[in-house]
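User: Hi! I have a protein structure encoded as tokens and I'd like to know what sequence might fold into it. I'm fairly new to this, so please keep things simple.
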């Protein structure tokens, strides 16, 4: 009898171990959590809709979390939409056991998007002075970005978001005497701070470069720091 119990325990342990290894490395695909994720997304904005494909689940046994990942989904608000490359998030195993499904974070990687469309879309559910500033100065061009959000216990977005990525072939039409186009840069947007790196642009058909430009929001007053150079000219703050 003892041998039978011992063998049964060994088989059970092996089965659990294999399940954990499989779930941790290969994962499983399911649509089981799609409705819960959609409800949480709507907490950001009542008009925000997410169209999800199958979600892949990967177990993180050391942190007692499950990683959720889906490819090729879409966010929609009214007639505008944003196509994503990857959406990732984590949920605690405890919240699933307690039937209290909640997200702690949301990481979104977009496909190549028209800049105006993306900024206008994001401003509909999370408007900030920094996004307003970008919306006003940037015209045309394309953008690929990563959007990182964290949620509090009530499911609201914390004020520590980060949006980064790169812009290609943008232009600025805000100045009468200056034509700014062929803008290519890497950006990092945080609350009250916009960092532009490796910027290349044309001003009246003269090529300029900048390693770093910092735009700070100080009580809705914008402070710009940095320098723009070409072979013959240096423009500093």
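Assistant: Happy to help. Inverse folding works backwards from shape to sequence: for each of the 237 positions I chose a residue that suits the local structure. Here it is:
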């Amino acid at each position: 009898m003892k041998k039978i119990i011992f063998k049964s325990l060994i088989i059970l342990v092996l089965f659990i171990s294999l399940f954990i290894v499989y779930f941790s490395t290969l994962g499983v695909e399911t649509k089981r959590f799609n409705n819960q994720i959609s409800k949480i997304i709507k907490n950001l904005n009542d008009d925000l809709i997410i169209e999800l494909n199958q979600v892949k689940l990967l177990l993180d046994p050391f942190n007692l979390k499950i990683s959720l990942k889906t490819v090729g989904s879409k966010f929609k608000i009214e007639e505008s939409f944003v196509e994503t490359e990857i959406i990732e998030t984590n949920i605690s195993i405890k919240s699933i056991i307690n039937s209290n499904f909640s997200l702690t974070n949301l990481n979104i990687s977009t496909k190549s998007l028209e800049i105006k469309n993306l900024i206008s879309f994001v401003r509909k559910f999370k408007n900030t002075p920094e996004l307003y500033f970008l919306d006003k100065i940037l015209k045309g061009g394309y953008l690929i970005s990563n959007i990182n959000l964290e949620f509090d216990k009530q499911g609201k977005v914390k004020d520590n978001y980060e949006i980064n990525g790169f812009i290609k072939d943008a232009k600025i039409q805000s100045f009468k005497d200056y034509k700014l186009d062929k803008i290519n840069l890497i950006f990092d947007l945080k609350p009250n701070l916009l960092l532009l790196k490796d910027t290349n642009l044309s001003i009246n058909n003269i090529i300029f470069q900048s390693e770093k430009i910092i735009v700070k929001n100080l009580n809705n007053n914008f402070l710009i720091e940095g320098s723009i150079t070409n072979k013959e000219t240096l423009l500093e703050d």
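A useful reference point when you look it over: The helical segments are 2-25, 34-44, 93-97, 115-123, 129-137. Feel free to ask if any position seems puzzling.
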